[in-house]
Amino acid sequence: MRKKIAAILVLVSVFAFFACSKKEEGGPVKAEPAPVEKRSVSEEEEAANAEEKRKVVDITESGEELFSHFITLEKPADKLVSDLVEVYNCSVFATGLGSINANWMRAGNSKAALEALNFAKSKTNILKDKEMKALLDAAIDEYEKYLSGTKTPDPGVEKKGGPDDLKAVAAFYEKLSEKYSPGNFVKLKPEEFIKSKDLKRFKDELEPLAKDPAKLSKKAAAEKDFNKKSLYALLLISLSGFNSKDAVFEEIFKSHKYSPYTQKIWNLWRGGDQAQFDGVSSNSIIENGRYNSMRREVALGILEELKRDPGNEFAVIDFIMTATADNILRTGAFNSADGGTTSVPDFGFELPVPEL
Question: What pLDDT, in 10s, does the model give residues 182-205?
Answer without folding.
Answer: 999 999 999 999 999 999 999 999
